[in-house]
Amino acid sequence: MSTAPLYRAAPTPRHRGFGHPFQAELAELLAWRRDVRHFRTDPVPEAVVDRLLDLACLAPSVGNSQPWRFVDVASVARRGAIIANYQTANAEALGGYRGERAALYASLKLSGLQEAPVHIAVFCDETTGQGLGLGRRTMPETLRYSAVIAVHTLWLAARARGLGLGWVSILDPAAVPQALDVPPDWSFVAYLCLGWPVEDQEQPELQQRGWQSREAACRQLLRR
Q: Which E.C. number(s) belong to this protein (predicted)?
């Protein structure tokens, strides 16, 4: 006759929280996460990139939909199409500024497309069956928000390993899916440059160059 207990004690949680040293390092990681534009051309090991993408997939997503889709843009021709896209969009953006602001804009390095050894395009699968539609019936845009959280998770994981990541947003988004030949149900979210930064910068480059102070848009809290 079995003498096993009729119930099992609840398992002890592995973590109720992290200690002060980890909390301090996390705060440092958040402060040192930069939008990198200046890359060395040294290659990033494929295993490292794969590990970073694994960590990015730990990001939360609406209804556990996991809608992010990553594209490793390695082809010279496809990279060339993205660079041409950027150059056209950047020239158009420059035309929207005048005077000193135009001169400052023209002097900024706004992408690392030429130097970064790794290019990753991020898409959202708008028709994914994962999650069975939970949580997104009234706000379908939360699928794309979930993909953005995955980008941020990737960003922090890269920075923790000494890698830099830059988000290139000066692009015609409608042309990117065609250039990369992805399924029609994938919507473009982000184009990322990944590599070893030329230098670490605690202060955002746009702030250093006088484009805008970070504090000007800092923490605005409304209580009701």
A: 1.13.11.79
Sign of the dihedral through C-alpha 208, 120, 194, 49: positive
DSSP-assigned letters across all residues of 100-166? HHHHHHHHS----TTT-SEEEEEEEETT--TTTTTT-SS-TTHHHHHHHHHHHHHHHHHHHTT-EEE
The Cα 76–Cα 89 span in angstroms is 20
| Amino acid found at 32 | W
Q: In angstroms, what CA-CA distances link 173 with 21, 131, 177, 180, 200?
A: 41, 27, 8, 12, 29
Q: Which residues pair with 42 in a beta bridge?
A: none
User: Which two structure tokens, joined as six digits, stand for 48?
Assistant: 């490292």
Burial class (CB in 10 A: 0-12, 13-18, 19+), 189: buried
pLDDT of residue 94: 86
Among 124, 121, 125, 115, which residue's Cα sits nearest to residue 179? 121
Task: Specify the pLDDT at position 5.
Answer: 46
Separation of first and last alpha carbons in the chain: 63
Domains of the chain: 35-198 (3.40.109.10)
Q: Which residues pair with 197 in a beta bridge?
A: 39
